[in-house]
Automatic annotation (TrEMBL), chain A:
One Pfam family recorded for the sequence: ABC-3
Record field: transmembrane: 6-26, 33-51, 57-77, 89-109, 143-162, 174-198, 204-223, 230-249, 255-275
Keywords assigned: Cell membrane, Membrane, Transmembrane, Transmembrane helix, Transport
Bilayer disposition of the protein: Multi-pass membrane protein
Keyword Plastid assigned: no
Main location: membrane
Residues in the signal sequence: none
Lineage: Bacteria, Pseudomonadati, Bacteroidota, Cytophagia, Cytophagales
Gene3D superfamilies registered for this protein in UniProt: ABC transporter involved in vitamin B12 uptake, BtuC
Family matches, as SUPFAM superfamilies: ABC transporter involved in vitamin B12 uptake, BtuC (SSF81345)
Claim: Ribosomal protein is one of the keywords in the record: no
Protein name: Metal ABC transporter permease
Subcellular location, record wording: Cell membrane
UniProtKB/TrEMBL annotation, chain B:
Species of provenance: Fulvivirga kasyanovii
Recorded superkingdom: Bacteria
Membrane topology, record value: Multi-pass membrane protein
Protein family: Belongs to the ABC-3 integral membrane protein family.
InterPro entries with a match to the protein in the record: ABC_BtuC-like, ABC_TroCD, Fe_dep_repressor, Fe_dep_repressor_sf, Iron_dep_repressor, WH-like_DNA-bd_sf
Residue span(s) of domain Iron dependent repressor metal binding and dimerisation: 359-427
Full protein name: Zinc ABC transporter permease
Keywords: Cell membrane, Membrane, Transmembrane, Transmembrane helix, Transport
Transmembrane segments: 15-38, 69-89, 101-119, 146-164, 232-254, 260-278
Compartments in which it is found: Cell membrane
SMART domains named among the record's database cross-references: HTH_DTXR (SM00529)
């Protein structure tokens, strides 16, 4: 039962991150996702300090706002300060993350957070952290409700805004020609990334969330070029990563989130090598068969 | 305050070691980082920084204790491996470089964390303090470690000094570098090796997670103060060293605090001050400059309108109301009023009970703007063959920019014309 709950929580997180990650990868914004996931840390800590609890909507909103602030700052330094984008990303997120870690250390007594949680989350404690209603009814692990809700919001966001997201990703020129604001959808997407990283934070920590944002979409992208298929494969990979990570961690007695990232990397490597059509092996083979077919060229 | 003097008197040899160590570590990564910054490869440093973690853990698992040389070797190996993998993934598949960086960074870090947690649960007593590699601890630099790190830092600084010209060429003009016969691949390889080395030793002070900041932020801050690469590298080194010193001090007074985040906050503060305050490139300077230009354009337009009104009535020194000015050209009323006041202060206009009129200097300036406008219109129609009804907007912009030298050349080129394409007179003094 506990194993199932942990795997379920992991899957929900991995699917939520993966779905958004598809758009980040296709928009060449993977590193902005990395930046946001680090930068929401001070928002999370401050929300903890002010509200004194974990499961408040304030926390999601506050940290989400910091995520959007990060995107804004990156663009501000880039556009107004003429700082190159990569440096702008690097300076902004390291600063916010550093502030977050200092807050965690300074208020270690008052905040139910520590550096380990920041780094790799506490998914192993998911079954222990129950949601109990005022009347004393035990509703099951709290994290499942939070990540589940966020996943439903995300799926709604992607389904309802599919056309807009699709167009602003692949053909921003055409999108703005037919009246879709690229800026609005850019910030909506960044807001969604912030929301998801905050919701995933407790389970997998601020840094390993990046592995779930980038690795499954990158793997799916090796296998298909169709966005809908890519989203479906990514979701499927999320479940595999979660289950694989759990059993790997149980076997070697290590962090589950770390193991999940390792499995995600392994899956990417397999796709990179053996993907039919795009993988290295397939490429080498097709090269060889070509040389056999045209012996005169050799 | 006592601790402050105790620390900065450097009387305690331990403090001296820690200070020298952190200065060297932060300064050398700032120096190497300047070149990766200029090559626009700043985030590669982030990937290397995260990727050394599995190397450190693996060498600990294999060797069983914290020997600095072995840990450095392990870190170096995986740091290098990450760069090779990023290169392979982004060049051999359709995955873009930024995705490859993010992928390798997070997966390597995940593997590292996985190994670290396995080590921590294994009950090996030698592992205590291994996790300080995550967020750094300057004060843990003692004895043998320090010597190893200081030697590498010295190698880094000397290599950059020795290959300064080559690195500069590589950063600014790779094609030129290869044309004049420099082994570009080799120099690139050297720079990459130095970057990995800088990360490997820098993590002692700053930690794996925030090491990227030590490569990127000092360089980004320094870039705002100078256009010269020598100055920039020096500045980056000084900024980096200053934050390293602060980190060492904080590590000394608050041993429970990780030093990395404090070092990063200090260097980020320096960077933000630079972004906003730096002369010429800073954001405030730019905004101020834009405002000045806007004011200048506004004022010149006011004088132009007054001149045109004078032209129509053949009386340049007539008193005008604000309404008359607005009937000729749409100004934002507030901007018009402040512009009029400013022009009066500067001696171009006189004000008499709400009526405005030229001084001699004002008429002269208005005349010049009108002249430039009409000269430019004529130039566009004669030389670029643009229809006379399409030249006004362009002339309206350029009239504020043309210098006296360009004015003289235009006059000469057009052979001192008297009429513009719309048959208005071009006024000479």
């Amino acid at each position: 039962m506990e194993a199932l709950q942990i795997i379920l929580a992991g899957s929900l997180v991995a699917i939520a991150c993966g779905l958004l990650g598809c758009f980040l990868v296709l928009r060449k914004m993977a590193m902005v996702g990395d930046a946001i996931s680090h930068a929401v840390l001070p928002g999370i800590v401050l929300a903890f300090l002010f509200t004194g609890s974990r499961d408040s909507v304030t926390m999601l909103i506050g940290a989400g706002a910091i995520g959007i602030l990060t995107t804004f700052l990156i663009e501000f330094f880039h556009k107004k300060g003429k700082l190159q984008t990569d440096a702008s990303i690097g300076v902004t997120f390291t600063w916010l993350f550093a502030v977050g870690v200092i807050l965690v250390s300074a208020f270690a007594g008052k905040v139910d957070l520590d550096q380990d949680c920041v780094l790799y989350g506490e998914i192993a404690y998911v079954p222990l952290d129950l949601w109990i209603t005022d009347s004393g009814l035990v509703m099951g692990p709290r994290v499942l409700y939070i990540t589940g809700t966020v996943l439903i919001i995300l799926i709604a966001f992607i389904t309802l805004g599919y056309k807009e997201l699709f167009l602003t990703t692949f053909d921003p020129g055409y999108a703005s020609a037919i009246g879709i604001s690229t800026a609005v959808w850019h910030y909506l997407l960044m807001g969604a990334v912030s929301l998801t990283t905050v919701a995933s934070f407790e389970s997998v920590g601020a840094i390993l969330v990046v592995a779930l944002l980038i690795a499954p979409p990158a793997t799916a992208y090796m296998l298909t070029e169709n966005l809908k298929k890519m989203l479906i494969i990514t979701s499927f990979l999320g479940v595999v990563i979660s289950a694989g990570g759990y059993y790997l961690a149980a076997w070697l007695d290590g962090s589950i989130a770390g193991a999940m990232a390792s499995v995600a990397g392994l899956l990417f490597m397999l796709a990179f090598l053996f993907s039919p059509g795009n993988g290295m092996v397939a490429k080498v083979k097709s090269k060889r068969s070509k040389t056999v077919l045209n012996p005169s060229e050799a | 305050m006592d601790t402050f003097f105790e620390f900065f008197s450097f009387a305690d040899p331990n403090i001296r070691y820690v200070v020298i160590g952190s200065l060297l570590l932060t300064a050398s990564s700032a120096i190497v980082g300047s070149f990766t910054f200029l090559k626009k490869k700043a985030l590669v440093g982030d990937a290397v920084a995260h990727s050394v973690l599995p190397g450190v853990c693996l060498s600990f698992i294999l060797y069983g204790e914290k020997n600095p040389i072995i840990l450095i070797l392990g870190a170096f190996a995986t740091g290098w491996l990450s760069l090779i993998l990023i290169d392979i993934i982004s060049s051999k598949s359709k995955i873009k470089e930024d995705t490859a960086i993010g992928l390798i960074l997070s997966v390597f870090f995940g593997i590292g964390i996985f190994m670290l947690t396995i080590i921590q649960k294994s009950g090996n007593a030698a592992q205590t303090g291994l996790d300080q590699i995550l967020f750094g601890k300057a004060a843990s630099l003692v004895g043998n470690d320090l010597i190893a790190f200081a030697v590498i830092a010295a190698i880094l600084i000397l290599s950059v000094w020795f290959f300064f010209k080559e690195f500069t060429l590589l950063a600014f003009d790779e094609d030129f570098a290869s044309t004049i016969g420099l082994p570009v691949r080799g120099i690139e390889l050297l720079l990459t090796t130095l970057t990995v080395l800088a990360v490997v030793i820098g993590i002692q002070a700053v930690g794996v997670v925030l090491m990227a900041a030590m490569l990127i932020t000092p360089a980004a801050a320094a870039r705002f103060w100078t256009e010269k690469i020598t100055t920039m590298v020096w500045l980056a080194a000084i900024f980096g060293a200053f934050s390293g010193l602060t980190g060492a001090y904080i590590s000394y007074i608050a041993p429970s605090m990780p030093t990395g985040p404090w070092i990063v906050v200090v260097i980020s503060t320096i960077a933000f001050i630079s972004f906003f305050m730096a002369p010429r490139r800073g954001i405030l300077y730019r905004l101020n400059n834009q405002r000045k230009i806007k004011k200048q354009i506004n004022d010149e337009n006011i004088l132009k309108v007054l001149y045109q009104l004078g032209e129509e009535e053949k009386n340049f020194y007539e008193k005008r109301t604000i309404e008359e000015i607005l009937s000729k050209r749409k100004f934002v009323p507030v901007a018009l009023k402040s512009g009029l006041k400013r022009l009066k202060r500067e001696g171009y206009l006189k004000n008499d009970n709400g009526y405005w009129s030229f001084t001699r200097a004002g008429k002269h300036k208005g005349q010049r703007t009108v002249k430039l406008h009409r000269l430019w219109e004529l130039y566009l129609t004669q030389y670029l063959r643009i229809a006379p009804d399409h030249v006004h907007d362009d002339a309206d912009t350029i009239e504020h920019i043309l210098t006296p030298e360009l004015e003289a050349r235009l006059e000469k080129l057009l052979n001192y014309p008297t009429m513009d394409p719309h048959q208005s007179e071009i006024p000479y003094r």
